[in-house]
Write a structure and sequence with these properties.
heterodimer; A: alpha/beta; 13 helices; 17 strands; 17% strand; globular; B: three-stranded mixed beta sheet; 12 strands; Cys_dSase_SufS (chain A); pyridoxal phosphate (chain A); PyrdxlP-dep_Trfase_major (chain A); cysteine desulfurase (chain A)
Chain lengths: 400, 349
């Protein structure tokens, strides 16, 4: 049990990053202590074992998302890098002036800025889906934005602020009907529910290891085989080549083509261990529990007067929202709330714009506070949070 | 001005270049880099130790370094503690907080300070006065008065940050520029508010202090460097010498004026048939939104270009605003736009 400022730590910032189970730490340690060697390069025993474990981790991730092949999983530094990979390779070669990319006002900066850069370089146009009055994505508007010039729809599976869940399979159907591809930002979904890339039908999917009990410095891009095959290299260097001459080189097949240089070997193996850990619990079980938590958090928070929670209501079984709530208390700045909760109650929540400045501007606010849960949080911790929040509100209200 | 006055200047930007101090017997020539802005070479009658610092450790190590003459004098100064270096009012504030035993009561004290802080007029809530890297919004204004001392005002939308700002305003107002520049952030530990000393994006208190020190330095340099300088009178904001302005464009020949950069950007991106860019800031000086003493805040812009073909008026304006984001964030306040295609112009009788 960790203590923070003399209080028992209650960690409710899982949307930012998750805590790691002992098995993941052990996997990292075993690698570094037992068989630390570079992958794909040597024939000696250590290198062979490292390579095996590294590629096994890839297979574990591939199976975790039901990819048809492990060759379709590219290890990256994080989800942001994965999106940039698509933007700079697929994006720059396939997009031209007048082509349209459909995003939303609620995207994380990592699913906005790369497309802005691509748009500046190619002349492609960015279109944005707004929110409904319930603060979910306006799907009717999205459908209306799709036309023959649309080449890509890139959006979240689960919103890290609104907590709402997009019907990806439907969006894929509509997008494919006009000949557009779909990239899914699954950072807030892969850790919390079973995600099946074949059932979704998406063309690209990205996620981060560190949000799903894995180490930082690791994430992945999943793409359909034929699309990855058509993409030019991203970063150049060792590993992603076949033959290298002084003035030119030939490139490897995916996924190696997109993994230049020595990868984060230990971290990939750690991610594999995280996948094992989650599988031992069972993603369906995790999801069911989190739906309960989501409902409990939402309802408890709603009962506090002057609290405004962003995103849709929780649904009778907690199924309409992820287990997170971004909120504001009238008259009290989000930063004051989170500072006081931390200092006086040992509760970790996040305040700020959560990498969604456009969304906050759209909602007309400067900042929000966010409590985000994971399967290891409990309803007791939610109670502690609620009590702490009430105390915080009383404290600041006294100074009004 | 004491020839032996020593001040430490820290550059909060880790990317700024190291400044060197050169000593001659009675004066110092130096180039000072303050968060990447290059100021004029100035001659000051006191000795300044300058360096680019990101960490407190570095700062304290350099504090005692001797750059030239008078080795024995600086050795004594190395021993000064952070507290002795504080202006008297700030020292009082620190002692007050040290006297409060309970953490929660300290927060109450902080909020009380914040309550007492007079609100800042909207016209001062400009990007120049905004503390960068604060999770809440904080603005700081400073003034060097005729008595040679700095006076501050501040505001924030977050109660705790307002309290911290009030604390600094209370502690630093009425101090001399040199006293302010000597303040090391280590005093924050003594407040017992668990304020981190890490220079980072989310460290509002540190960034507030840095901004106040930066503005103090600019005001101080402006008042001593300009040949015909006199401290700006609080009643005549339009007449403030440009030296105090933090905008880089006034300082170096290589950096273009706002007018030049508007002209070049619009020319490059819109290939206009006709382009007129007129600075009408003088017509707006003094009203809300025009930072004191600046020019190049308001422009009339007329663009005739094929690029507007098929675009609604709103889209044309958005296009132009989109091209000038950088300028809009650096003091450009408003554009009065005329946007037409060549066909629309020739249609007029």
């Amino acid at each position: 049990m960790q203590e923070v400022h003399g209080y028992k730590l209650v960690y409710l910032d899982n949307a930012a990053t998750s805590q790691k189970p002992a098995s993941v730490l052990k996997a990292l340690r075993d690698y570094y202590e037992g068989y630390n060697a570079n992958v794909h390069r040597g024939v000696h025993a250590l290198s062979a074992k490292a390579t095996d474990e590294y590629e096994l981790a890839r297979k574990k991730v591939a199976d975790f998302i039901n990819s048809p092949s492990d060759r379709d999983v590219v290890f990256t530094r994080n989800a942001s890098e994965a999106i940039n990979l698509v933007a700079y390779t697929w994006g720059l070669t396939n997009l031209k002036e007048g082509d349209e990319i459909v995003l939303s006002v609620a995207e994380h900066h990592s699913n906005l800025v790369p497309w802005q850069l691509v748009s500046q370089k190619t002349g492609a146009v960015l279109r944005f889906v707004d929110l409904t009055s319930e603060e979910t994505l306006d799907l009717e508007q999205l459908k209306g934005l799709l036309n023959e010039r649309t080449k890509l729809v890139s959006t979240f599976h689960v919103s890290n602020v609104l907590g709402c869940i997009n019907p990806i399979a439907d969006i894929v159907e509509w997008a494919h009907a006009v000949g557009a591809k779909v990239l899914v930002d699954a950072c807030q979904s892969v850790p919390h529910m079973a995600v099946d890339v074949q059932a979704l039908g998406a063309d690209f999917l990205v996620a981060s290891s560190h949000k799903m009990c894995g180490p930082t410095g690791m994430g992945f891009l999943w793409g359909k085989s034929e699309i990855l095959e058509s993409m030019p290299p991203f970063l150049g260097g060792g590993e992603m080549i076949v033959d290298v001459f002084l003035d030119r080189s030939t490139y490897a097949s995916p996924p190696s083509r997109f993994e230049a240089g020595t990868p984060a070997i230990g971290e990939a193996i750690g991610l594999g261990a995280a996948v094992d850990y989650l599988n031992r619990i069972g993603m369906d079980r995790i999801h069911e529990y989190e739906m309960e938590l989501s409902k409990y958090l939402y309802e408890s928070l709603s009962k506090i007067p002057s609290v405004k929670i962003y995103g849709p209501p929780a649904g009778s079984n907690g199924e309409r929202r992820a287990s997170l709530c971004a909120f504001n208390v009238e008259g009290i700045h989000a930063t004051d709330l989170s500072t006081f909760l931390d200092q006086q109650h040992g509760i970790a929540v996040r305040s700020g714009h959560h990498c969604t400045q456009p969304l906050h501007r759209y909602l007309g606010i400067n900042a929000s506070a966010r409590a985000s849960l994971y399967f290891y949080n409990t309803t007791d911790e939610v109670d502690t949070f609620i009590n702490g929040l009430k105390d915080t509100i009383d404290f600041f209200s006294a100074f009004k | 001005m004491s020839a032996m006055a020593m001040a430490m200047v820290s550059c909060p930007s880790s990317s700024c270049s190291l400044a060197r101090g050169y000593l001659s017997t009675s004066e110092v020539h130096h180039q000072l880099c303050v968060t990447g802005l290059l100021l004029r070479r100035t001659t000051l009658p006191c000795r300044l130790v300058t360096h680019a610092s990101v960490g407190i450790q570095q700062a304290q190590a350099v504090r005692g370094r001797d750059w030239g003459l008078g080795a024995s004098a600086s050795a004594a100064q190395v021993q000064e503690t952070a507290e002795e270096e504080l202006p008297s009012k700030l020292r009082e504030v620190v002692q007050l907080f040290q006297g409060v035993a309970e953490q929660r009561a300290r927060y109450q004290q902080l909020l009380y300070y914040g309550q007492k802080l007079a609100p800042l007029a909207k016209e001062f809530c400009t990007p120049e006065n905004k503390v960068q890297g604060c999770v809440s919004q904080v603005w700081v204004v400073c003034k060097l008065r005729d008595d040679g001392r700095m006076y501050f005002e501040a505001d924030s939308d977050s109660a705790l940050t307002k309290g911290l700002a009030a604390l600094l305003v209370e502690g630093l107002s009425g101090a001399t520029p040199v006293e302010i520049l000597k303040v090391s952030p280590t005093f924050m530990e003594k407040l017992g508010l668990q304020q981190s000393l890490t220079p980072s994006r989310s460290n509002g208190f540190l960034n507030m202090l840095r901004l106040m020190q930066k503005k103090t330095l600019e005001a101080y340099m402006g008042s001593t460097a300009a040949p015909s300088s006199s401290s700006p009178s609080p009643d005549a904001p339009e007449k403030e010498p440009e030296a105090i302005e933090s905008k880089p464009k006034a300082e170096s020949a290589e950096i273009t004026t706002v007018k030049d950069s508007i002209t070049s950007k619009l020319t490059e991106r819109l290939s206009p048939v006709e382009l007129e860019v007129e600075d009408v800031s003088h017509q707006h000086a003094g009203h809300a939104g025009a930072p004191r003493g600046s020019s190049e805040t308001h422009f009339n812009v007329k663009v005739i270009s094929e690029a507007f073909q098929g675009l609604s008026l709103v889209k044309r304006h958005r296009l132009i605003y989109g091209l000038l984001q950088e300028e809009l964030q650096n003091g450009l306040h408003a554009l009065s736009l005329i946007t037409k295609t060549p066909a629309e112009v020739s249609d007029k009788p």
